[in-house]
């Protein structure tokens, strides 16, 4: 049975080095060239558990909200926040007297920095990139006994480090709106194991500047 391992992240937040990195990134965004373009967008789509995660959870659905600066026509940097919910997979254990059914469901909230490299200069622009940051993962187990139908839910929520290589494409409808489609491979690290799922996303972006 797949189960995320516990991981301590308190020191991650308190890290002086991480604070310096955040300050440098923020300063870089503020002092960017006036030629930079800022885009905001939303993508939605099915999220497919992979590997051992697929043993405990079914295909879910999620969305991502992103804001990014286009430093030039090829390079984009920014921030991403999302939410994905996964369905439960029932597993029945047959005991000597009664059977017990265990269901497991979960959700993931990525809070990440993003980087994109766009290929080409026309209306249709393929791109590759990656997200890097934290994933808040919530997991719920529910055990139901066949003897009296009693149910015992157990839930927990932990923060994990993760990243997501991405490949997609943008199609410009006009000078403000673009359609977007991408594949995003989400990798969530934990002590002694990992959790992975693939997002198949479509959406749109609006160019503010």
Folded structure, characterized:
This protein is mostly beta strands and 209 residues long. It has helices at 10-14, 16-30, 53-56, and strands at 37-50, 60-70, 75-86, 91-94, 99-118, 124-145, 151-172, 177-190, 193-207. An 8-stranded antiparallel beta barrel has the order 1-2-3-5-6-7-8-9. The chain is elongated and about 55 Å long.
Which terms summarize this structure?
single chain; 209 residues; mainly beta; 8-stranded antiparallel barrel; 3 helices
Query: What low-confidence regions span 5 or more consecutive residues with pLDDT below 50?
Result: 4-16
- Head-to-tail CA distance between termini: 49 Å
The coarse overall form would be elongated
Strand order of the largest sheet: 1-2-3-5-6-7-8-9
**Series of secondary-structure elements, N-terminal to C-terminal:** HHEHEEEEEEEE
Number of strands: 9
Which helices and strands, and how do they pair?
Blueprint: H1 10-14, H2 16-30, E1 37-50, H3 53-56, E2 60-70, E3 75-86, E4 91-94, E5 99-118, E6 124-145, E7 151-172, E8 177-190, E9 193-207
Antiparallel strand pairs: 1-2, 1-9, 2-3, 3-5, 4-5, 5-6, 6-7, 7-8, 8-9
Give the gist of this structure.
With 209 residues, this protein is mainly β. It is built from three helices and nine strands; from the N terminus they run H-H-E-H-E-E-E-E-E-E-E-E.
């Amino acid at each position: 049975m797949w189960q995320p391992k516990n991981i301590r992240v308190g020191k991650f937040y308190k890290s002086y080095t991480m604070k310096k990195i955040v300050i440098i990134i923020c300063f870089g965004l503020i002092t960017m060239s006036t030629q930079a373009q800022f885009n905001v967008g939303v993508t939605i789509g099915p999220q497919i558990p992979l590997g051992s995660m697929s043993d405990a959870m079914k295909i879910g659905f999620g969305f991502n909200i992103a804001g990014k600066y286009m430093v030039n026509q090829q390079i984009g940097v920014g921030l991403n926040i999302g939410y994905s919910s996964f369905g439960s997979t029932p597993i029945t254990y047959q005991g000597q007297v009664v059977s017990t059914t265990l269901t497991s469901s979960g959700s993931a909230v990525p809070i990440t920095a993003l980087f994109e490299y766009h290929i080409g200069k026309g209306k249709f622009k393929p791109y590759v990139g990656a997200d890097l940051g934290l994933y808040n993962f919530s997991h719920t187990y529910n055990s139901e006994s066949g003897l009296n139908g009693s149910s015992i839910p157990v839930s927990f929520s932990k923060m994990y480090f993760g990243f997501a290589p991405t490949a997609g494409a943008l199609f410009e409808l006009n000078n403000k709106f673009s359609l977007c489609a991408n594949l995003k491979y989400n990798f969530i690290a934990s002590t002694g194991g990992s959790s992975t799922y693939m997002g198949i996303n479509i959406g749109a972006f609006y160019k503010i500047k």
